[in-house]
Amino acid sequence: MHRNTIWQGQGKTLLVTLAALVLLVGYMVWRGVSQGVETPRTMWVWSLVAIAVPILHQQWVWLFWRLELSSSWFTRHWGFRLGFGVYAVGFMFMFAGRLVALIPVGIASKGSLGLPVWLTCGAAALITVPVAYLAWSVGRYFTISRALGIDHFDKTYNVPFERRGIFRYTNNGMYIYGFLFLYYPGLLYASEQALLIALFNHLYIWTHYFFTERPDMEVIYGGTPER
Question: Which of 50, 117, 145, 211 is the S-S candidate for 150 at Cβ 3.0 to 4.6 Å?
Answer without folding.
Answer: 145
